[in-house]
Design a protein that fits this description.
single chain; alpha+beta; about 30% strand
Length: about 200
């Protein structure tokens, strides 16, 4: 576990904008950039219950996952308290070449399991905040304080449209724009009828 104290990077554009306005002599009536409402992690996550396989339903596009479909995330709680992370995807097609990346993660002290740090390459870490979670752990939404990344995860490869839309509506409360999300193609569930 780790407790990091650092400047929230979301505040940097606002600080820079304010300084530039003073330096350049901007008009007093011109408003400074405003801070969006804070991203909040859920109150508590049962980390043991969260372990296992999750299917990526949608994401805000990022260069690390460019062209990947059929993405899954596997989490394993280790004896030392860290979490093993294995992300798997297929290149361009459901049956495309497999791409896999591994990492380790740990929960942030005092966050009740809802905030993690994930490390793919030492010494760099990334924030992993669980900002929405189904009471039965059927779906989860993972974000970051600066809203540059977002993933909607599910215990099954597919999610019904009503649940997806409800999640998107709640994302607006965190300052996310759901229109930036792209759905992640997944194979049909084993018991789902296949198209002809």
């Amino acid at each position: 576990m780790i407790n990091r104290s650092r400047l929230n990077p979301c505040i940097v554009p606002c600080l820079v904008g304010g300084v530039m306005a003073l330096v350049l002599g901007a008009h007093a009536a011109e408003p400074l950039p405003t801070m969006p409402s804070a991203v909040r992690a859920v109150e508590r996550v049962d980390v043991q219950k969260y372990m296992g396989r999750w299917y990526e339903i949608a994401r805000i596009p990022n260069r690390y996952q460019d062209r990947l479909v059929a993405v899954t995330c596997d989490y394993d709680l280790r004896d030392n308290g860290t979490i093993g992370v294995v992300n798997t995807g297929r290149l361009d097609r459901i049956d495309g070449k497999e791409r896999k990346s591994t990492a380790k993660a740990w929960t942030v002290e005092g966050a009740n399991g809802s905030q993690w740090e994930v490390q793919f390459i030492w010494p760099l870490t990334a924030d992993y905040w669980i900002i929405d979670l189904d009471p039965d752990y059927r779906y989860a939404v993972v974000g970051q304080p600066c809203r540059t990344h977002l993933w909607i995860l599910s215990r099954t490869p597919n999610m019904d449209d009503a649940t997806y839309q409800t999640i998107c509506d709640r994302l607006k409360q965190h300052g996310y724009d759901p229109d930036k999300l792209v759905r992640t193609p997944q194979p049909p569930a084993p018991d789902a009828p296949r198209g002809k």
